[in-house]
Design a protein that fits this description.
The chain is of the alpha+beta class and 503 residues long. It contains ten helices and 30 strands. The strands form six sheets. It has a seven-stranded mixed beta sheet. It has a seven-stranded mixed beta sheet with strand order 21-22-23-24-26-25-27.
Amino acid sequence: MLTKMMVPSVLIVLACAVVATGFPYEGCYKDRYPRDIPSSDKLVDSQGMTVERCSMHCRTYKYFGIQSGDSCRCGNKYGYYGSVSNSECNIKCDGNKDQNCGGSWRNAVYENPDDLMAVHLGCFKDQYPRDISSSGKLVDDNMGVQKCLDHCRGSRYFGIQDSDSCRCGNSYGDYGKAANGECTAQCKINANDNCGGRWRNAIYEIKSKPLNSVFASGLPGPKLVFSALGDWGKLGSGQTHVAAALGTWSQVHQADFTLAVGDNFYETGVSSENDPKFEKVWRNIYTHPALQKTWYVIAGNHDHLFNRAKYQPRFGQRENRWYMPSLYYSFYKTVGTKKVHFVLLDTDTVRWGRDKTQLDWFKRQLQSSQGDWIIVIGHHPIYSTGYHGVWSSTRGMYENIRPLLEKYKVALYICGHDHSLQHLQKSRSHVVDYVISGSGSKSDSTDSDAQEYVRSRGIKSVMFYPDHGFVGFEITEAQVRVAYIDTYGRIIYSFTKGNPRAV
């Protein structure tokens, strides 16, 4: 039997090499059809697969398995075909050659951290067809909230009914809410837990335990804290979950403001400054008290359709929180004794190199900047490995915007457009870090042609996350810390850099 042990940051498997950092390694296991760990949530990344990346993807499951260096699968059990020698899991991860990512038809299996909890949402009616599907239903005379949570890992919600029946799903509530007094069945394991009632589901949401913030200890000294949210204007569960996580993060970190980096209203922007989308898509969704501060807004390509982008600055004339004096503008913030210069572009016109007026304005902003820090914001990327591919990284952005960022030592270029979270930088001697926060309500996968394109430009894709989320920032006089946050409020990746203008 394989012996394993954990040390503070490294997992050591006795009698073999170091396998991963921070995740218990279960061993090397055979695979065949039907798959030992199902492919229903499979993720393939031929450039950036790592143990951490697979864990992020499988965050609500108990286990994850990596195979052939690039394929990640999620599940709550494994081992049907038996284990094999660790020597048969000898393929290194494509994104980190120090890590073990299985073998040919061999899963390197890891255990995810036990950081989930159940939040009770109330009592809900049920009938046929079931509000939450009975596929995978668990019936147990000793049912409890924790038992149902463990059974439903991989789902967003679970419902317990009649004290013994557990069902898992990603939606609920088709038949409406019932009075709490209709869910009176006690759980057998813990009488303080609510286990529903007759044709009544006690509904729970599966969430991460309290926010594990990389900012918990904080950078020393005065700081400026803000978030960037892109492509957020599509109503649905993705937007709602990001909004909740954004509100919590902003409260915990006492955020000063929010950057809205475009595609604010799908699919065709707003039809006037009185369009009800301002209420339905923005005001009624981002209701958390911590989000009632200023939003600095730019337009995306969807906002520009039918020449409609002009209505958003007009809305800002009567809504103080919606700061958008024009389609491109700049502002300063102070952190300690230093100034931070934010320059916001309207990239839907400038990306084709046709907007000479805006390009001249941009050059003047950088040439005359009084900022100790400079941060530039646009909707379209200069580099991206996302679904939109090379169409994201147009010649106009590469030839007209990129050289100015490097010349004037801009610390960050923040954008959206591709529906993912990304961090890119030059492979050598980089000045600018490229931050993509484009999954506020939509999400997409990576693109192999785009990966090849950025490599041909000498750019490294440091991190790519294909799911919903946003990015948080903390700036001090000397450093900026950037954290990528998922819908569970968890930091999936972060980096810290100094000020290139101070060098």
